[in-house]
Structures are given as structure tokens and as C-alpha cells.
């Protein structure tokens, strides 16, 4: 059970090991493809743990459909139900061989139709389950559904989060202590390049969903082009609002300067960062976006809204520029400030790259080791 007393860590036990002595854990999460933030972090963490000798069993929430069930993918509600059943079946099989589950979860409908049944299944099988909290909507979600999900939170053997933003939300809503396990920025994958001088080549790499408010970036871009007519904008992502975003580009007269790239496999994102000079993020809800870490590692100065946990990642005026949410004019002004002050852009990018060191794979693995297999406590009293 999660310890309710503020400031006291969740109850921990030694992690059962295989006969060979290596720790084993079942990671339940969406895995790529598609390349959403939670899926990318689940894969990065799995690979980092494997490199350090862990036995990892991946159980994908986004289970693929067989040919026989391909038709279900065209029916929204049926698709959700069937995919959840496939996931729970896969998790049940995995629990025959693993005693610990690490479940990555956001806080929206996903928690009720994926996380809740997974928690109940693991506890019914008398397995340990730890929750990795994700997403920027946790505080609002807890205000609305806190009473419903509190019993499930109290069943957990521990909770982790990648940012102080989520840690605070859990403490305020449930009085539980949460361990910080940082997101991973793979510095070997992303190459730092100094933009000197910085050019008006803007990149937005978020999926086209309402919470990411990509339309704000497009409106800001239209204002920027009035001063910098050679400006270009690349949109790496896809989603439910794509058609509306394409119409908005046409309405604002910027279609010829905006490139819709679609979903980009994560192993190809480095080449995308190489082609652009400034990362723009205009999300309304967020936690600790991996795309900002990747921009830091690649040398792109960052302009972002101050949504959710982003101020814990981007220090305004030090590692990037922050503006208020849903304000295209402020977003445009911040981008133009970088274009008109190249030394500022270089300084922010250099500071941001140095800040990436705290998001190394080794840091995340170390925290997981302390969470799941802590050193035994010496209970002997001193003489």
C-alpha cells in the first residue's frame, strides 16, 4: 500500500530476482509505434534497464489487432474495449512469470479503462505494482475524480513521477509521497549543433490534439512572417485536428511556408531537428515534454507556454523563453526576440544543453534501482 503520511516514502520491498540474479520487471505502457511521449519514454526506460542487466517484459497497452480483428479498429468504442481486453490478457500472462509491474499512466479516460483494471488485476494476483504518473492534466483530473480513484491509488506499492509538478499534485490530492524518476534524454542519439546565427526555421513537434494547441503556434507563425517573410514552420505530428490546422494555414495565407510532416519515427527525429533552428511549443496542458529535452540536446533554443510542469524543465530567460498559454502574440514576440538577439539564443541553447545531464539514462536507472530493490535497513540498535 502507498504510505499516506506526507514526507514518508511509499512502502518498498526487495525485488524478486531470477535464478541468474538479474532483477525482472514487467513494464506496462504504450510502446511505439505511434511515437507519443509516453511510448517513447517507456521504450527508452526499457532499453536503459536492459543495458544495466534487468530482465524486462514489455506489455503494450496498444496491443496490435490480428487480421481477424482488423475490422474492430474502425469502430471507436469497440476498438477501445477490445484493445483493453487484449492488453489485460497479455498482462495476465506476463504476471505468471513476474512479480512486479511498473505501469505508465496518464490521467484522462486512459486511467479508468487501462490503469484501473491493470491495478486490480495485479493486486488480485498478489503482485507488486508501481505507477509512473504522466501528463499535464493530473491536478484537474484529481479534483474531478479524486474520490473515485483514491482507493486504487492506495492499493499501489509506490508512485513515481518525472517532475515536481506531478509530485505536488499527488501530495495535495492524496497525501502520498512520490519518488522522482526523471524522463530520459538520450544524449547519444541527439547531436548538439550551434545555430549561429539562428534562422527563422521553426519546428513544432507535438501531436495534433486539442491539449497541445498547435493552432496557437500557427497563428504566432503568421504574425512572425509579417516581419520575417522567409520564415518556415515544420509540424512533426498528426492527430484529430489535422484538417482544421490545414484549413487555418490556408485561411492565414501561410500554407506554402508550413510543412506537415506527419508522424516521424523517433529514430529519425535527429534529422528533423537538424533542419530547424527554434522549437516552439504552445501546449495548454503538459508535464515534462520529451520533445523539449530533445531540442535541448540538439541545440535548438526553445520557446514554450508555461503549461503544467514545463516551468520545472524550462527556466525562463536561462534555458528557454516562457509565455502564457493560448497567446499567439506573446509566442510570436518571444520567437522574434531570439531572432533579433542571436547571442541570447546561443546562450539559452548552451545552458539548456548543460541542463540535460540530469536526464541521463543512468539517473533514471539509479532511481528505479532504489525504488524496486533498496538496500536492506540495518535494524540493530547501537551499543
Offer a quick outline of the entry:
By secondary structure, this protein is of the alpha/beta class.
Describe this structure in words.
This protein has 383 residues and is of the alpha/beta class. It has 2 domains: 173 residues, Rossmann fold (3-Layer(aba) Sandwich), CATH 3.40.50; 158 residues, Glycogen Phosphorylase B (Rossmann fold, 3-Layer(aba) Sandwich). The protein has 13 helices and 12 strands. The strands form 2 sheets. It has a 6-stranded parallel beta sheet, with helices on both faces. Strands 9-8-7-10-11-12 form a 6-stranded parallel beta sheet, with helices on both faces.
Per DSSP, the total helix count is 13
The name of the CATH topology of the largest domain is Rossmann fold
CATH superfamily grouping of the largest domain: Glycogen Phosphorylase B
Strand order of the largest sheet: 2-1-3-4-5-6
Give unreliable regions as ranges: 3-20, 375-383
The best one-word shape is globular
Secondary structure layout plus pairing:
Blueprint (H helix, E strand, L loop, with lengths): L23 E6 L7 H15 L3 E6 L15 H19 L5 E6 L3 H16 L3 E6 L4 H18 L2 E4 L2 H11 L4 E2 L20 E4 L9 H14 L4 E5 L5 H11 L5 E5 L6 H6 L3 E4 L8 H9 L3 E4 L4 H4 L7 E3 L4 H13 L1 H14 L5 H12 L11
Parallel strand pairs: 1-2, 1-3, 3-4, 4-5, 5-6, 7-8, 7-10, 8-9, 10-11, 11-12
Key descriptive features of the protein:
alpha/beta; 13 helices; 383 residues; disordered N terminus; Rossmann fold; 42% helix; single chain; disordered C terminus
Amino acid at each position: 500500500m502507498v504510505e499516506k503520511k506526507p514526507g514518508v516514502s511509499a512502502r518498498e520491498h526487495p525485488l524478486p530476482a531470477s535464478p541468474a540474479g538479474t532483477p525482472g520487471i514487467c513494464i506496462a505502457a504504450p510502446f511505439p509505434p505511434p511515437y507519443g511521449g509516453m511510448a517513447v519514454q517507456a521504450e527508452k526506460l526499457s532499453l536503459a534497464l536492459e543495458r544495466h542487466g534487468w530482465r524486462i517484459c514489455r506489455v503494450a497497452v496498444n496491443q496490435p489487432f490480428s487480421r481477424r480483428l482488423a475490422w474492430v479498429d474502425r469502430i471507436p468504442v469497440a476498438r477501445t474495449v477490445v484493445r483493453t481486453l487484449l492488453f489485460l490478457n497479455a498482462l495476465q500472462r506476463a504476471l505468471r512469470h513476474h512479480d512486479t509491474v511498473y505501469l505508465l499512466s496518464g490521467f484522462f479516460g486512459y486511467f479508468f479503462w487501462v490503469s484501473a483494471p491493470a491495478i486490480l488485476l495485479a493486486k488480485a494476483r498478489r503482485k507488486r505494482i508501481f505507477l509512473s504518473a504522466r501528463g499535464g492534466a493530473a491536478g484537474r483530473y484529481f479534483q474531478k475524480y479524486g474520490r473515485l480513484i483514491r482507493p486504487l491509488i492506495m492499493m499501489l506499492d509506490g508512485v513515481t513521477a518525472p517532475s515536481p509538478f506531478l509530485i505536488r499534485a499527488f501530495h495535495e490530492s492524496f497525501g502520498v509521497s512520490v519518488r522522482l524518476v526523471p524522463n530520459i534524454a538520450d544524449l547519444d542519439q541527439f547531436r548538439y549543433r550551434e545555430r549561429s546565427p539562428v534562422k527563422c526555421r521553426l519546428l513544432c513537434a507535438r501531436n495534433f490534439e486539442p491539449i497541445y494547441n498547435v493552432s496557437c503556434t500557427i497563428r504566432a507563425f503568421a504574425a512572425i512572417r509579417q516581419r520575417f517573410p522567409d520564415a518556415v514552420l515544420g509540424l512533426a505530428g498528426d492527430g484529430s485536428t489535422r484538417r482544421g490546422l490545414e484549413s487555418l494555414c490556408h485561411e492565414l495565407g501561410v500554407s506554402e511556408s508550413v510543412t506537415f510532416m506527419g508522424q516521424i519515427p523517433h529514430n529519425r527525429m535527429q534529422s528533423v531537428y537538424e533542419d530547424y533552428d527554434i522549437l516552439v511549443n504552445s501546449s495548454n496542458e503538459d508535464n515534462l515534454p520529451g520533445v523539449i529535452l530533445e531540442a535541448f540536446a540538439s541545440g535548438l533554443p526553445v520557446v514554450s507556454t508555461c503549461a503544467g510542469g514545463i516551468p520545472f524543465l524550462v527556466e525562463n530567460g536561462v534555458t528557454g523563453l516562457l509565455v502564457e498559454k493560448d497567446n499567439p502574440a506573446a509566442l510570436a514576440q518571444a520567437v522574434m526576440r531570439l531572432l533579433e538577439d542571436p547571442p541570447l539564443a546561443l546562450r539559452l541553447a548552451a545552458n539548456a544543453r548543460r541542463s540535460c545531464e540530469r536526464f541521463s539514462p543512468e539517473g533514471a536507472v539509479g532511481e528505479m534501482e532504489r525504488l524496486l530493490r533498496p538496500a536492506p535497513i540495518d535494524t540493530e540498535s547501537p551499543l
